[in-house]
């Protein structure tokens, strides 16, 4: 049989949709080393990105002592929602993914991040991966493409190196994580770094900062080459650094402790200045972020991963910390794709009755307004001027909403007039304007911006400063808070005379207060770790002007916690007179470094920085190139009937953008007199460029079976030994097409049609050998009569819905269904109907109740033609306990009920089947297991009951008053997820309708239904 195609031209049975909401018309910008694929919305920034890419090439080729072998493709999207629609990466892309470098075509695929400085960092990070792949290339694999040795290395090694080479040894965010690890005395050894509990970006960044500091920045390239050859970072450590990983772990741990413990001793915990409201239990890693406190200070909206399956929006009581309700269901809501969890928070209306949330719905940027009395959606406003919306803020009179928004790949400020539904732009340039906050008097909007510290011409992107936008004149004034560090997330007090904000001016992100009349800055917090959200630009504070309280988010205990602070109840200090720290907290150890190559190139552009004059542009033309070749197979054999040879291979092709996909394959063997009967050949094409996905497939696949008989006979008057080998072929030839339209990410309609021919062939090969002389008396092949071929035309349609949440070995929450009908006409006429509905509920965590009801049947005059295979109930994916291999000799005597059948087997076949399944699923091991073990293979147990019935035309199942009895079974299954590739199912099953067969074990490869 042919190996499976990577492109599923008949569409997935289930699975969520990757919706192409937009049809992008790409062009190509060619630089010295890059082909940058972009479309109109990204055109204005594409040349800047080209200059950034060439600068990174100059930096990285020098530090890694390597030049890329080929031109580097880079696919650029103007926003993250556009990036999520890419076909270059077939998998779903989460909103936390900043970019991807894939291994087949070595494409860098990324969205513009908004701030050009953030885009520059992500771009550099992904180009590091391109260098890693190129440096560690090890020749063609069995799959037909070149495997980079980097794919065998752990994430902390690969991602950490990319972070270090693009951020350097000074980074307040990574240092915050390392201080927390030092406080908890949980800095891991190098051998434990691949444990999922250690975030590879932060811990890997700190590791490489230490190695480069002690052995020089050039050691990164040497270790990459060594590890790429061996696949083992410990071998590379020994070979390049001349030290064991255990000794290196000890030295690294000592350096981190020595650097950060003096800082920790001079600072405090959030509990010393504020009241905890949402923290984690012992051993938990809480994720409670993006606080927004109500105007009266009694309620708090925040984002949290409390339900384990997704980050959602919650409402909590400030006094007790008790959660009142969940406000979103992004995991199961097909119309809500994102709540902008990384860089956004919502805002309360001035009267506290409504809440505005930035979101992505059906691929479009929207403002979702909620009724806080019941959590319902009042309205959802589509903002056509933006691709993404961040941090909406309500005007004091409740008539307008200001927000930061992505358009053209950059972040600007906008205002929505709620009455006129009109949007106007406040800023329009390449600088990043983020975190708007409307002043209580409505005259100005405070925000953070890099416009005062950046030079786009020189590709130098500075720190963020506070600014005020005058609503009447449009004038932007800088706020003289401090000239050090980033200043973000401004929030007003009740009378508009003070701004609270976050700054890392001392190397630690802390809370500060600015007195506007005199521009005096006071330090409100002095934490060991810091006031921070998920990233350095994530909003992390919110003020309740009327109540005078502040909600803030802090990172500690390996998680994100929320606290409530009343500034009037604790002393503050002027930040300018704060005593200096013994070591600058943002520096990653060691303080004294052997070389400063990375630090220096991050501070300035290389000599001769290109201005882009030589860049050229052209239209994109789709061309197929080979992605992979399945391992070619060649087989051979010899027997008394002679020799045979067989082999085959499959080739996978696509264009650079992944819009056009082609698979071609063949397999052939010489077993039999007619080679054509043994030829398998298929070709399939799929077009994903537009929202309507379509594809065609055609080819031939033969199914071969054989029977051998022996006898003694008289041939030409002498005794002979005679063998007869009979070969049977069912040859399927088909040309078909599919057309699929996703209604949203959960639901789609699929149309299909085509022509199918099923031909039959048979031959008998007879060989007779003389018993007296051993000579061959006869060796001949004759064709045998067979049933006439079947020629059918087919038309079908399906409605598919899937919003199930997957666990380690099967769905655990939500529902999915498929309703499918197709009609075949021609030599036979029949209709195939399918109804498959599945539901998963979780009465209490982590237990799931799963149920399925399925019907599959052929109807019409040709439904039971003997040339069509009957439907079978006994597959382990339908009714366990009745697989064909489970029958013992004693169950297959002639009395059951006629020769050639087994006990109860007549109940398993028909032209129609109905199945009911129920399971109680208990995850044992894995991230969701009763025994939490995120680094272990998922193992689940399921107590089950299966039931089914098969029947033919003119019969009825017994449950409908007919005579056709059903079958059932019960038992327990253990499922194991083998590295995310296969799910193995071990079942101890009791078939209730096999009297002579009790409890027995079955094994199969199939996940939970």
Task: State the gist of this model.
This protein is mainly β and 1009 residues long.
Describe the structure.
The protein is mainly β and 1009 residues long. The protein has a 20-stranded mixed β-sheet that branches. It has a six-stranded mixed β-sheet with strand order 4-5-3-2-1-33. Strands 25-26-27-28-32 form a five-stranded antiparallel β-sheet, with no helix packed on it. Strand 45 and strand 46 form a beta hairpin. Residues 1-11, 636-644 and 895-900 have low confidence and may be disordered.
Structural class: mainly beta
Percentage of residues assigned to helices = 10-25%
Number of helices: 10
Estimated radius of gyration? 33 Å
The largest sheet is: 20 strands, mixed
User: DSSP strand (E) fraction?
Assistant: 35-45%
Task: Pick out its properties.
mainly beta; 1009 residues; 20-stranded mixed β-sheet; 55 strands
Strand and helix layout:
Blueprint: E1 27-30, E2 34-38, H1 43-64, E3 72-77, H2 80-83, E4 100-101, E5 108-111, H3 116-135, E6 137-140, E7 146-148, H4 155-167, H5 172-183, H6 200-215, H7 219-230, H8 233-241, H9 245-265, E8 275-278, E9 288-293, E10 299-304, E11 312-317, E12 323-326, E13 347-348, E14 354-361, E15 364-371, E16 377-382, E17 388-394, E18 400-407, E19 410-417, E20 422-425, E21 433-438, E22 444-449, E23 465-470, E24 476-478, E25 487-492, E26 498-503, E27 510-515, E28 520-523, E29 541-544, E30 549-556, E31 559-565, E32 573-574, H10 597-603, E33 616-619, E34 625-629, E35 633-639, E36 642-654, E37 660-669, E38 680-687, E39 693-715, E40 718-742, E41 747-770, E42 776-783, E43 790-802, E44 805-806, E45 811-826, E46 830-844, E47 847-859, E48 871-872, E49 909-910, E50 912-926, E51 931-932, E52 939-951, E53 967-978, E54 982-991, E55 1000-1005
Parallel strand pairs: 2-3, 3-5, 50-51
Antiparallel strand pairs: 1-2, 1-33, 4-5, 6-7, 8-31, 9-10, 10-11, 11-12, 13-14, 14-15, 15-16, 17-18, 18-19, 19-20, 21-22, 22-23, 23-24, 25-26, 26-27, 27-28, 28-32, 29-30, 30-31, 34-36, 35-36, 36-37, 37-38, 38-39, 39-40, 40-41, 41-42, 41-43, 43-45, 44-45, 45-46, 46-47, 47-50, 48-49, 50-52, 52-53, ...
Helix pairs in contact: 1-3, 3-4, 4-6, 5-6, 5-9, 7-8
């Amino acid at each position: 049989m042919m190996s499976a195609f990577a492109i599923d031209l008949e569409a997935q049975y289930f699975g969520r949709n990757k919706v192409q909401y937009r049809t992008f018309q790409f062009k190509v910008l060619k630089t010295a080393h890059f082909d940058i694929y972009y479309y109109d919305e990204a055109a204005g920034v594409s040349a800047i990105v080209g200059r950034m890419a060439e600068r990174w090439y100059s930096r990285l080729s020098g530090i890694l002592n390597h030049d890329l072998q080929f031109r580097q493709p880079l696919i650029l999207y103007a926003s993250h929602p556009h990036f999520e629609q890419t076909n270059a990466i077939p998998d779903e892309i989460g909103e936390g993914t900043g970019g991807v470098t894939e291994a087949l075509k070595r494409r860098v695929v990324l969205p513009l991040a908004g701030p050009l400085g953030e885009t520059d960092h992500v771009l550099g990070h992904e180009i590091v991966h391109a260098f890693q792949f190129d440096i560690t290339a090890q020749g063609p694999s069995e799959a037909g493409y070149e495997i980079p040795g980097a794919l065998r290395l752990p994430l902390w090694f690969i991602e950490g190196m990319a972070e270090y080479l693009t951020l350097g040894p000074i980074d307040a965010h990574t240092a915050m994580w390392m201080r927390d690890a030092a406080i908890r005395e949980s800095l891991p050894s190098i051998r434990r770094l691949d444990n999922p509990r250690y975030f590879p970006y932060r811990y890997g960044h700190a590791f490489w900062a230490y190695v480069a500091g002690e052995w020089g920045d050039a050691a990164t390239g040497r270790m990459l080459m060594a590890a790429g050859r061996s696949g083992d970072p410990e071998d590379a450590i020994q070979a390049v650094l001349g030290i064991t990983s255990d000794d290196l772990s000890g030295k690294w741990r000592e350096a981190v402790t020595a650097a950060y413990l003096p800082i920790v001793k001079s600072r405090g915990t959030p509990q010393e200045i504020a009241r905890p409201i949402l923290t984690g239990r012992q051993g938990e890693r809480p994720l409670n972020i993006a606080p927004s406190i109500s105007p009266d200070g009694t309620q708090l909206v925040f984002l949290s991963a409390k339900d384990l399956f997704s980050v959602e929006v919650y409402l909590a009581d400030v006094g007790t910390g008790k959660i009142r309700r969940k406000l979103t269901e992004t995991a199961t809501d097909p119309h809500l794709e994102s709540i902008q969890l990384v860089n956004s928070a919502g805002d309360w209306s001035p009267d506290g009755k409504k809440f505005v949330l930035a979101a992505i719905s059906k691929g479009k940027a929207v403002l979702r307004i909620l009724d806080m009395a019941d959590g319902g959606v009042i309205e959802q406003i589509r903002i056509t001027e933006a691709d993404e919306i961040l941090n909406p803020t309500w005007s004091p009179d409740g008539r307008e909403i200001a927000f930061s928004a992505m358009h053209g790949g950059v972040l600007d400020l906008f205002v929505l007039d709620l009455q006129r539904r009109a949007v106007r732009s406040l800023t329009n340039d390449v600088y990043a304007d983020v975190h708007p906050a409307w002043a209580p008097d409505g005259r100005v909007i405070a925000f953070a911006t890099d416009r005062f510290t950046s030079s786009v011409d020189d590709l130098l992107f500075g720190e963020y400063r506070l600014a005020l936008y005058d609503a009447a004149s449009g004038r932007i004034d800088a706020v003289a808070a401090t000239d050090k560090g980033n200043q973000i997330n401004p929030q007003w007090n009740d009378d508009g005379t003070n701004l609270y904000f976050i700054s890392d001016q001392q190397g630690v992100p802390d809370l500060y207060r600015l007195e506007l009349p005199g521009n005096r800055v006071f330090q409100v917090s002095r934490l060991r770790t810091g006031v921070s959200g998920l990233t350095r630009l994530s909003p992390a504070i919110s003020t309740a002007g009327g109540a005078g309280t502040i909600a803030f988010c802090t990172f500690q205990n390996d998680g994100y916690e929320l606290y409530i602070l009343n500034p009037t109840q604790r002393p503050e200090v002027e930040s300018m007179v704060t005593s200096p720290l013994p070591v600058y907290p943002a520096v990653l150890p060691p303080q004294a470094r052997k070389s400063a190559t990375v630090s220096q190139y991050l501070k300035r552009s290389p000599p001769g920085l290109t201005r882009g004059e030589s860049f050229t542009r052209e239209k994109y033309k789709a061309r197929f190139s080979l992605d992979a070749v399945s391992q070619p197979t060649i087989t051979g054999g010899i027997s008394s009937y002679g020799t045979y040879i067989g082999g085959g291979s499959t080739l996978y092709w696509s264009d650079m953008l992944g819009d056009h996909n082609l698979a071609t394959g063949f397999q052939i063997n010489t077993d039999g007199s007619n080679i054509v009967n043994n030829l398998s050949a298929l070709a399939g094409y799929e077009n994903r460029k537009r929202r309507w996905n379509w594809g065609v497939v055609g080819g031939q696949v033969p199914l071969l079976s054989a029977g051998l008989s022996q006898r003694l006979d008289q041939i030409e008057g002498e005794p002979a030994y005679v063998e007869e080998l009979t070969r049977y072929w069912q040859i399927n030839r088909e040309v078909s097409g599919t057309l699929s339209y996703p209604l949203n990410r959960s639901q789609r309609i699929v149309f299909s049609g085509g022509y199918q021919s099923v031909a039959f062939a048979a031959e008998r090969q007879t060989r007779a050998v003389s018993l007296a002389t051993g000579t061959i008396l006869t060796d001949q092949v004759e064709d045998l009569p067979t049933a006439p071929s079947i020629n059918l035309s087919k038309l079908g349609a399906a409605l598919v819905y899937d919003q199930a949440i997957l666990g380690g070995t099967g769905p655990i929450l939500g529902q999915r269904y498929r309703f499918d009908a197709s009609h075949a006409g021609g030599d036979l006429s029949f209709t195939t109907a399918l109804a498959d509905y599945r539901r998963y509920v979780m009465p209490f965590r982590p237990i799931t109740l799963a149920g399925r009801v399925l019907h599959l049947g052929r109807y019409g005059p040709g439904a039971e033609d003997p040339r069509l295979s009957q439907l079978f109930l006994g597959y382990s994916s339908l009714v366990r306990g009745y697989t064909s291999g489970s029958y013992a000799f004693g169950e297959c005597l002639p009395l059951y009920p006629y020769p050639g059948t087994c006990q109860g087997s007549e109940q398993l076949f028909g032209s129609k089947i109905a199945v009911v399944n129920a399971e109680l699923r208990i995850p044992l091991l894995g991230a969701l297991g009763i025994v939490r073990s995120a680094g272990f293979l998922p193992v689940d147990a399921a107590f089950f009951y299966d039931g089914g019935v098969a029947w033919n035309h003119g019969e009825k199942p017994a449950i409908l008053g007919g005579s056709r009895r059903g079958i059932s079974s019960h038992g327990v299954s253990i499922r194991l997820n083998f590295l995310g590739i296969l799910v193995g199912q071990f079942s101890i099953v009791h078939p209730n309708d096999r009297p002579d067969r009790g409890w027995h074990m079955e094994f199969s490869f199939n996940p939970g239904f």
